[in-house]
Amino acid sequence: MKKLALVVMMAIGGSASAEQVDCAKFAAAMDADMKAMSAGAVASGKKAASDAAFAAVAASNLQSNLVLMQAAKCKLPTEPVSASYYIQSALECSIKDSYGSDSERQTACDRTKWERKK
């Protein structure tokens, strides 16, 4: 945690002020990481190992981004950060990846079209 705090101080204090930080980029990165965690949670078949590994990295990224957002005085999420928001889309992707056609897989696994469910 001390290393992370040092990185935060260097990233925010050393080269950019809080006013120059684009907080929306943090939110977008966190959303992508939640999708990766969802994919890792339901991973099966040929991509199971890579999806699970990427989900672990995404979880670490989420923690780092929350610390960076706080240091930059960005608005923090008001609800829990969770892979469950995209689990339905991730499950659909996993099923289509195993049993669907190429076009069905491409459609179901396009994370830009995944809908967040509560």
What does this structure look like?
This protein has helices at 2-14, 23-41, 48-71, 87-99, 102-108. It is 64% helix and 0% strand. α1 (2-14) packs across α3, α2 packs antiparallel against α3 and α4 packs antiparallel against α5. The chain is built from five helices and no strands. The longest helix is centred in the middle third of the chain and has 24 residues, at 48-71. It is mainly α and 118 residues long. It has one domain (2-11, 22-113). It starts with a helix and ends in a 10-residue tail after the last helix.
Please give a handful of descriptors for the protein shown.
mainly alpha, disordered N terminus, 0% strand, 5 helices, 118 residues
Task: Give a short summary of the structure.
This protein is mainly α and 118 residues long. The protein is 64% helix and 0% strand.
The main β sheet shows up as: none
Given helix and strand content, the structural type is: mainly alpha
Overall pLDDT confidence: 83
Counting structural domains, the number is: 1
Q: Give the DSSP E fraction (strand runs of 2 or more residues).
A: under 5%
Radius of gyration (Å): 16 Å
Q: Return the string of H and E elements.
A: HHHHH
User: Which descriptor suits the 3D outline?
Assistant: elongated
The counted number of beta strands is: 0
Terminal residue distance: 31 Å
Low-confidence stretches: 1-10
- Fraction of residues in H or I helices: 55-70%
Count, helices: 5
